[in-house]
From TrEMBL:
Entries under Pfam families matching the protein: HTH_1, LysR_substrate
UniProt keyword list: DNA-binding, Transcription, Transcription regulation
The protein's name: LysR family transcriptional regulator
Secretion signal, residue range per the UniProt entry: none
Length: 297
């Protein structure tokens, strides 16, 4: 028989994820079972909690009140359980996470052996991905994403910030006689399609039809830039060695290029599992102690 706590927990998941289907995925239940939980809770409370349509739902006044009162209580309950478990057991289970190939390869993968030494009962399942869309569908626990996050309803924790800059090779600069006063729109540009799709970034990018190459891979963008095919906008952490060796040189340094953020993103569940919490905390400490690796040499 379902307890009230189980039914309320299901209700919290439905509201947090914004979907009966996504809540069912996170809870490892069928969609019909999630609906049954909600109906049983409404019957028990003798009130309607959700106004349902074919595609969406809205909270009733009673539903909003229940959510506001019980979500903090369930979080406190889970934290109390974690505190008890932390004194008797180590974090354990499979942690499924993803990151972009370049950032994951440079910063996450080298740290994973040390993380597993500290938490040997956590099994790691690492995926390479650039999007947030499959976080819930693939049952990922946490994903690391760079830059501006869309308003997806997901929760996140910012780890650090890093600068980006326009760069070109010395040969390209000589060939096109590039100075800080040159018009970027007249020069071949190597564009990052991830930035082109973000409205927050369009105002900072050159208004140019002279795009020589477009990619969503910063590895490809760096390769084409080093081949003198154009100038590009790249994260400093990814080109530190080329900047030190002067294979790449900053250009258009007076243009506004806002720092970008590094975020650990996770589903909007009421409970953050202990294995996820220690993983996030580990990398918060790591980037706090190694911030210089993200910045100009």
């Amino acid at each position: 028989m379902l307890t009230s706590v189980e039914k309320i927990n299901t209700f919290i998941y439905v509201v947090d994820t914004g979907s009966f289907t996504r809540a069912a995925t996170r809870l490892n239940l069928s969609k019909s079972m999630v609906s049954l939980h909600i109906k049983a809770l409404e019957t028990e409370l003798n009130t309607t909690l959700l106004h349902r349509t074919t595609r969406q739902f809205t909270l009733t006044e009673s539903g909003h009140a229940l959510y506001q009162q019980f979500r903090p209580l369930l979080q406190q309950f889970d934290r109390a359980l974690d505190a008890v478990m932390a004194g008797t057991t180590q974090p354990q289970g499979t942690l499924r996470f993803s990151a972009t190939a370049e950032f994951g390869g440079q910063f996450l993968l080298p740290q994973l052996p040390a993380f597993r030494m500290q938490y040997p009962l956590i099994q790691l399942d690492y995926r390479v991905d650039h999007t947030l869309s499959d976080l819930i569908a693939q049952k990922l626990d946490v994903v690391l994403r760079l830059g501006t996050l869309s308003d997806s309803g997901l929760r996140y924790r910012r780890l650090a910030d890093f600068p980006v800059c326009y760069v070109a090779t010395p040969d390209f600069i000589r060939r096109y006689q590039v100075t800080d006063n040159s018009d970027p729109a007249l020069l071949p540009f190597i564009a990052n399609s991830n930035l082109l799709s973000q409205s927050a970034w369009r105002q900072h990018l050159p208004a140019s039809d002279n795009t020589a190459f477009v990619s969503n891979s910063i590895q490809a963008i760096r390769t084409m830039t080093l081949a003198h095919q154009g100038y590009s906008l790249l994260p400093v952490w990814y080109i530190r060695e080329q900047l030190i060796q002067e294979e790449l040189v900053p250009v258009f340094t007076q243009r506004d290029t806002p720092d970008q953020s590094i975020n650990m993103v996770f589903p909007p569940a009421a409970h953050l599992a202990q294995k996820v919490r220690v993983f996030i905390d580990y990398f918060v400490r790591y980037f706090s102690e190694n911030a210089e690796q993200l910045r100009y040499p």
